[in-house]
Amino acid sequence: MVPNQEKLDILLRDARACTICAEHLPLGPNPVLRASTESRLLLVGQAPGTRVHNTGIPWNDPSGVRLRSWLQMEPEEFYDERKVAIVPMGFCYPGKGKSGDLPPRKECSDTWHPNLLPLLPNIQITLLIGQYALDYFLGKRKKKTLTETVRSFREYLPDFIPLVHPSPRNYGWLKKNPWFEKELVPEMRTYVQKALI
Ligand code: SF4
Fold this sequence. Notes:
Layout: H1 4-16, E1 41-44, H2 50-55, H3 62-71, H4 75-78, E2 84-86, E3 96-97, E4 100-101, H5 106-116, E5 125-129, H6 131-138, H7 146-151, E6 160-163, H8 171-176, H9 179-196
Parallel strand pairs: 1-2, 1-5, 5-6
Antiparallel strand pairs: 3-4
The chain binds iron/sulfur cluster.
Iron/sulfur cluster binds at residues 15, 18-22, 29, 31, 90-92, 105, 107-108, 111.
């Protein structure tokens, strides 16, 4: 039998060579994801922005800086795939819409997630970062609005923590919802620290 790490490595190689929706990608395919069978924390965000596309490094932007500050995690730990798997809803930059980046390409999660996620047996907790990850992982368990879902975060523990996206576009939301950084963020840190032990 092929060991799981080998299976995962093959799948990651295939995903990184993927061109399924290339015709829709203004900058072409450049799938950005990372994972190990040892990973204990799973981060599911939206899709790379141009900076991540250009560097190939996930969360290498102001959103990543904010996310790491919420987690109180240094880049060395954040980018250690034996600890943290980073598998967004779309692996490639989807292009710009009228109000910010377009949604992650649906083909991506439809194609890759059902194959990849079962190969991560040590994930203790998954951070669902933004609406698309909430839709995919929580489905009918979501509340009417993203704010309500995030505010009800304790209902989804210990498997998931729903988060607003840490993009600068959401700084207004963070100001209006101070409970997020006062209550959710400290509890999230505790769960994440436990997960990484
Ligand atoms: S977004 Fe996903 S499905 Fe589309 S080319 Fe990139 S890896 Fe493939």
